[in-house]
Amino acid sequence: MPAKRTWTDAQDTRLRQMRAAGATWDVIAAVFWIAPATARDRGYRLGVPAPVPVLPSWQPPGDRPALAAGHPVTWGLLTAGTCLEGAPYG
């Protein structure tokens, strides 16, 4: 069984700063030479919040009319990479 890890205040501060900057648990674990699960566990115990993901803003389509069911563009997108790829709608 591995020895118990003793965390210092400086390490806790660094973990918080790295996570706030958006570092993943894998990156943090590599910096501290520990397993990602150990880094996640320490972050959880410290109450470190997960970074807020930056999502692209969604814009409504504007004046574009909706495409009909089975339109070749939408049907092709839905079936790409499946067993229905190339099959006609309906």
List the helices and strands and how they pair.
Layout: H1 9-20, H2 25-32, H3 36-46, H4 72-79
Helix pairs in contact: 2-3
Question: Can you offer a commentary on this structure?
Answer:
The protein is mostly helical and 90 residues long. The chain folds into 2 domains: 9-46; 63-90, no CATH class. The chain is 43% helix and 0% strand. It has helices spanning 9-20, 25-32, 36-46, 72-79. It starts with 8 loop residues before the first helix and ends in an 11-residue tail after the last helix.
* Total number of distinct structural domains: 2
N/C terminus separation = 60 Å
Radius of gyration equals 24 Å
Q: What kind of assembly state do the chains in view correspond to?
A: single chain
Number of helices: 4
Q: How many strands in all?
A: 0
Shape field: elongated
In N-to-C order, the SSE pattern is: HHHH
